[in-house]
User: Which sequence fits this backbone?
């Protein structure tokens, strides 16, 4: 069998990139969510979609 082992610095590099990217995505999602929450009047349809989304995840 062929065993491929990554160096520790490569693993740390990709992990730091992944963490930074995930923080950016979370921040971007929250800012977009707050923007739409301020500017869009929620209807019962949107609330149903939101509850369905929360149940899935």
Assistant:
């Amino acid at each position: 069998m062929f065993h491929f082992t990554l160096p520790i610095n490569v693993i740390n590099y990709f992990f730091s990139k992944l963490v930074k990217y995930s923080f950016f995505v979370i921040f971007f999602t929250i800012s977009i969510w707050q923007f739409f929450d301020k500017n869009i009047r929620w209807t019962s349809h949107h609330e149903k979609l939101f509850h369905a989304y929360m149940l899935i995840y």
About this structure: The chain has one domain: 8-56. Residues 30 and 56 are 19 Å apart (CA to CA). The mean pLDDT is 75.
